[in-house]
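Before a colleague's protein record goes any further, I have to sign it off. What it holds is a sequence and that sequence's fold in token form. My question to you is simply how this chain folds and whether the tokens agree. Thanks in advance; the entry in question is below:
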Amino acid sequence: MKSISLQKQLILRLLILVTCVWLLGLFLAGVQLKKELNKTFDSALQETAERILPLALVEIFNREEAKLLQQLPALSAHEERLTYQVRNADGEVLLQSHSARQKSFSTPLRNGFVSQEGYRIYTVSAVQDAYFIQVAEPITKRREAVLNTLLIMAMPLLLLLPLCLLMAVFLVRQVIRPVRQYGSQLAKRGAGDLTPVTSNNLPQELQPMRQAVNQLMQRLQTALEAERHFTANAAHELRTPLATMMAQTQRLEKTLNDEASRLKAGQLVISLNHLVNLSDKLLQLAKADSSGLLTDTPQDLSLLLSLIVDEYQRSGVQDLQLQLPQQAIKACIDADAFSILVKNLIENAIKHGDSNSSIIVKLNGQGELRVVNACEPLNAESLKHLHERFFRASATTPGSGLGLAIVDALVKGMGGKIQLLSPASESGSGFEVVVQLPVQP
């Protein structure tokens, strides 16, 4: 299941919340605005009716034919928002505005407000309820006024919505920054660095998580140190008795006259030699699993590699070809750890490669170390398990199966990367180990 970014979730939910609150506020404002505008418009209707009625009665009383309908003309062409008419007690229309429609005033002659057929009508009487004036206003005009007012109120908010989005992104990033920094501290750690993470900027809600992670790392470090100490102590304690047994067996082999006994003693020497090599590998493995693979002082890897390869070249075990860059390659890597790394790669190439072919050891300017030996290509299944401890691709080849496992542990502890290739990158056969070391620019 694909994980969702916490930052995106916070921004999205914050925007949804702000939008919903904004819409709710706009709705409540619209309800209150409609109520207040209706009060204002009703007051205007009442005021208009009360001002027009005396004038209309004067007009009616002064004309010659009292029952004749008179429609007052407009002084200039315009849309008449408020229309009115004056009626007597029998309902006859005596006077009306120029655009008043008879249908709009089909309401009973009762004082007060009434809403009917899309109009808001106010009726008031005079002369002991002998005459009535009705002033009408279309309800659609009131709705338009409410909508226009809400639109004017909403426009600034719509313009501010992008600003709210930017502010939400900025604020959420500020809140998430300590979490990202905490994650970066964990990501930058090497495989062997299990010391507690100190991050005081974490929010209070995440402090229990930090404490739980530190406790877990502490327990893991304790378990790994116990395992390393056991491995190192066991290997160290075995070296002295094994060396003593080796010397006594070799001395016994020289004193024996029986060929069969001498052969058995020679086989015992080989077995003891295998145990000695295994104890050495276990010590190297304990070193590889430790956290002291990096140093504060940069080391010249080119010089160290040259010294290691020169030692093998002088021994004459097999032809080694060394290729180094012109500039020095600096890295904060422990010299002993780098020596163990290179020696295991060369010993692996000697054991499993063609003895009649050269072994190529190459270091480039980007800190990429390559060791290539000639051999038959390995199948993909064997290549996948070569870095595992005590795994050997060929049971007939002598070895403990720890060489590449030690190399893999060292590279990970140094913060580098390792790649096993078969066939080699520039050949149709052979075996190649590519190690990317964390060098300084």
Observations:
- Residues 292-436 form a domain with the Heat Shock Protein 90 fold (CATH 3.30.565.10).
